[in-house]
Each structure stands twice: as structure tokens, then as C-alpha cells.
Amino acid sequence: MSPDTSPQPTADGSPARDAAAPLPRNVGAPPLRDIGAPLPRDIGASPPGEIEDALLPPAHPDPMLEPSHQPPTPGPAPTKAEPSSAAGRAGDVSTIKVGPEIRLEGLRAFYGSSEQVKGIDLRFPPNQVTAIIGPSGCGKSTMVRCINRMHEEIPGARAEGRVLLDDLDVYAPSVDVIAVRRAVGMVFQKPNPFPTMSIFDNVASGLRLTIARSRRGELHSRVEAALRSAGLWEEVHDRLSTPGIGLSGGQQQRLCIARSLAVDPEVLLMDEPCSALDPIATLRIEELIAKLKQRVTIVIVTHNMQQAARVADRTAFMLGGQLVEVGDTSEIFTNPGDPRTEEYVTGKFG
Amino acid sequence: MSAHRAAPDRIARFAVSPRRRRTDKAARVLLLAATLIALVPLVLIVYYLLHEGLSAWSPSFFTTDPTGSTFFGGSSIGGIKSAIIGTIVMVALASAIAIPIGIGVALWLVEYGRESWFAHTVRFFVDVLTGVPSIVFGLFIYIVLVLGTGSSYAGYKGSLALSLLMLPVVIRSAEVILLLVPSALRESALALGAARWKVIFRIVLPTALTGMLTGVLLAVARAAGETAPLLFTAGHTNQSTLNLGQFMNSLPYQIYNDVISPTPAVVNRAWGAALTLVAMILILNLLARLLARRSRLA
């Protein structure tokens, strides 16, 4: 946490909400560098207890996470600040968090000279689940991988256009790609826990890989919170030190979700997260998605149209690298505006 | 085309023809013969090593230096302590040089160089180096570090020659194992927001480590058995020393020296030293296999 982003308690003890200070939801996740602070955003004041299951990671500012950056805080001393901000944040557990809105503007993605995503404009509303459907090779995964800039990891791949997270372009030249990926978590098609690590270490890996040093107790509580959020804690709490690859496929995928949640992302990208799972494990993941959208914006790529219908608030249909149609899920499945969408969702092709 | 329907005996349809039966038998016998022929020298080597070498082994064989006196034979010729120490010290230094550099090169090739022209050039030269005769590495060090500096032989020069020999083996074996690490692991670590170097050192390397050890240990074993790179780099001495700046004895060199002696006891010492060397390499190989069995990738 860099000094300028620590929530400074104001006189009334609540976190400052001016443009210079990020929202509490950014605490624990480094800011996107050099692209200004996130816009102020209303924190929903929902009644307590609504999302108790989705335990949020410890909310107070984590001075121990990047000790080298710990500022000699001007104004209120950190020790004094902590109780008040912790109190302010304690309310967050029962408060719906606000994920960012994602907007794609003229997004094009290439592998070498072949264009896989051909200019897409698309908006993902905050705290909603948007499903991307379309036949194989239509560019769904490529498009989603542009949002956390994983697309460019493939040799010869590049992207053009803009991807805005709350008006911050993740492709702006000054943006640190690592900071983008911390804010935008990703779950892959095949469960892929790190094979050399235990269940605990797998979940802690995100924190250990991205943050200089973590205090043990802090790490443990965040791992537990992430595992609870992923609905895995009850099943694994008594064998946290056993290898992560010893779990079943569905548990492994939830472990991977927990691993992503541990770094407290604002967006969760899911690239066919259930395609390697049996129906029961799939159901559990879908229930989880419904719960998680209260704290993150979710984009899910799926081949399974029933799944899209079950989990998604909005559905986008892609074909040949282009967006055909996007709208409310019920609209897309019952009354699509484009004949190609209708043909696809009724199983005439794809 | 209804021959099978015409056949009176339906079983005969599937019967193997006598001709195919004969060809099969001939192929079997030929291949078995090749295997047996290859086994003959292997068995003989092990037999002679044990037969001749074990008689040379005694506690003092391992704890005394060669005396240099070969005329009277018997116990006055001494043991092979300096050779064992020299081999261990020089190979250890060579490993300390070649293994980190080799794994570093392999990591670069797999994680950064990938399909670039430079990576392909590096791979080409590594392959060429693998095929270079070991004496050429000795010659290179001799020209550069002995003639070039006008100084004498030294243990560290032998180590450098051995490390050059090990380097291509380490690079190629490590690269193969690193390529086996699923790219999904790299991707998920990168997607967590980890820096590339952290992904490499915290995820890729630990995953590949046990697999790489196998190749590394084989490279070490190869270096330990080489005489040629040491002939005019480390030289020969009878005295035990840990000083890498001085002449240093080694097992292969000791064998090379002893086996041409007219004194039977000295030739016998060569057998004992050879058995010692084989035993050391065997232990290394067994270690490598044990580690490979524990590896998640092998």
C-alpha cells in the first residue's frame, strides 16, 4: 500500500471519500499506478447480514503487507487511525461492495496477423454477472483475456482499443500490468492449483507472490476468509497442509477461485470455469458466482447455455470475433433481436 | 471378394500364415541377439571391476595418498586418497559453476527467449557444444588459462574445463523439464498479479526442480568420469590438497597413470580406483533416480 492511498480517517472517523483517497474496497489491492485514483463511488448501505457468507478479507489498512512503503503518516498516527478505520470498515462486511464497471471500446485482438477480436464495444455493469456465449473460436476467451491483459502473454499477441475499469484504461501506456491483474482476478477452464503447494499455500500464493511480506496471522485470516468465500472452508479446514492437487476437480476449481479472491480483486473473469467439472460441482460454482457478484463484477465465458441462463444477469453473444448482441439474459434467450442469436441459442448451429 | 464365405473352416480365416510366423520368430531372435551382444561387455566390465578392484580395496587404500614409488609394489605404493579428494573438490566446483548458469540459460530459453532467433542460435550452439569432444574443452582452458596466463596447472582450471563440459548437458536437460511445466501454472500465477520473475522463481522452478535434478546429476556423473579435460588443466600430483590453485589429482587421471605401469600392484590400484569411481557415479545415479521418482513431472 503506498502512502497516498491509505484511507485517511477524516474528522468524523469515516474514511475520506475525496478523489485523492481510494475507496475502502481498494484496501489491500495496490492501485493502478499512474492512472489517477479511482473515482469516488457510493458505498451501498445495505442492511447488515446480507452477505455474511461472503466474508470479506480483513478490511483495515494492512501496514504490514508492504513494510517498505509504510509512511510516517502525517496527521493521525497509524496506531490511532487503525481502530477508527477498522471500525469504519467493519461495516463493510455487511455492506455490498461495489465492483467497477468494465467498458470495452473498439477492442481488437490479434495473434500475429490474424485478428481474433474485431472491434468490440461492450459494457459490463458493476456487480453483475455477464455471460459471453458463442461458438468455439469466436474470440470469447481472447476478448476476456484482454481485460486483465493476459492476452499479451502469448508470443505474437497484441490488442488495440480501450478497456476501461471505471474510466481507467488498462491499456494506457503508464499502466502497470501487474496492478491490473491484481485488480482483475481470473479463473481458468481447467482447475490448476500449484502442484508443489498445500491447500493453504495455494490460497496464500497470490498474497505471497504479490506482496512483499505478510505477517503469519494476517495471512491465515485472509486465507480462511478466501476459502470461506469460495465455499471450501468447511471441507478443507482440517487438512490445509495437504497438497492442493489431492482435492477433487470441483474442489480444485473452488480452490482456484479462493486463490483469486485472496488478493481481493474487483473483477473476476471466469473462462469456462465449469467445463471440466461434473454437474454437482458445476452447481456449487454457480451458487458461488451468484454470491460473489455482490463484491465483484463477474464476466463468465461459457459454452453451456443453460449455465448462462442460470447465472448471468446479462448475456453477450459473439460470432467470428464480433459482438452480435448483448442484453438481459432473459431477453437474449427468449426474445433475441438478431436471427443469428436465435439460431445459436436454440441450437441450430455452434 | 467373398473368399471368407467360401472358406469351409471359419477359424482358418484368422490363422497366422506360416510365413508370418517364421518372420516374427526371426525378428525376435535377431533383436534378442543384439541385446545379448550388448550385454556381454557390460557384464564383463562389471565382473572385472569387481574381481580386480575389490582386491585392491582396503581401509588404507582410501586413506593414504599415492607415494609415487612404484618399484617395490605392495603397500609402499600408497592409496588413492588425493585422487578421491581431487575429484570431489573439482567436480563440486565445476557443478557450482555449471548448474546455476545452466539452469539460468534454460530458464531464459524457456521463459524469455522462447522462439526468438537469438534463442534458436543459443540452442544451436548448446547442441554443438554437447557434441564437442571433452579433450577440446581441456585444450581451450589450457590455451586460455595455462598458456595464456603463463601460469601452471591448477585445480580450478580443471574445474572450469569440467564445467564447460557439463554446461550443455545441464542446459538441455533443464530445458526439457521446464517445457513440461504446464503453461496453465504460469498463466494462473501471472493472472494473480505476480511479476514474471516471481512466477519463474516461486512457481516454475519449484515445480521443475526435482525433474531437473536428474539431468543435473547425470551431468555431474559425466564430469566426474572425464580424464581428458584434466590432462593439461589440473595436472597430476600425489599429495592431497584442497587448494584449487595447485596441481590436483583426480580419479580418472590416477587410473590413466597407474594402468600403464609395469608393476602389477600399481595396475591393481588402477582397478581399485576405477571401481571407486564407478561406485561414486553409481551412487549419484541412484540418487538421481530416487529424486526422479519423487518428481511430479517425471
Salient structural properties:
heterodimer, A: 350 residues, alpha/beta, Rossmann fold, six-stranded mixed β-sheet, four-stranded antiparallel β-sheet, 11 helices, globular, B: mainly alpha, MetI-like fold
Description of the structure:
The complex is a heterodimer of chains A (350) and B (298). Chain A is an alpha/beta fold and 350 residues long. Helix content of chain A is 30%, strand content 18%. Chain A has a domain of 244 residues: P-loop containing nucleotide triphosphate hydrolases (Rossmann fold, 3-Layer(aba) Sandwich), CATH 3.40.50. Chain A has 11 helices and 10 strands. The longest helix of chain A is centred in the middle third of the chain and has 14 residues. The longest helix of chain B has 39 residues. Chain B is mostly helical and 298 residues long. The mean pLDDT of chain B is 89. Chains A and B meet through helix 3, helix 4 and helix 7 of A and helix 8 and helix 9 of B.
Adjacency order of strands in the biggest sheet of chain A: 6-7-8-3-9-10
- Number of E-state strands of chain A: 10
Strand content of chain A: 15-25%
Structural class of chain B: mainly alpha
CATH class wording of the domain at 102-345 in chain A? Alpha Beta
Q: Give me the number of helical elements of chain B.
A: 12
Report the average pLDDT across residues of chain B: 89
Low-confidence stretches of chain A: 1-95
Largest two-chain interface: A-B, 27 and 22 residues
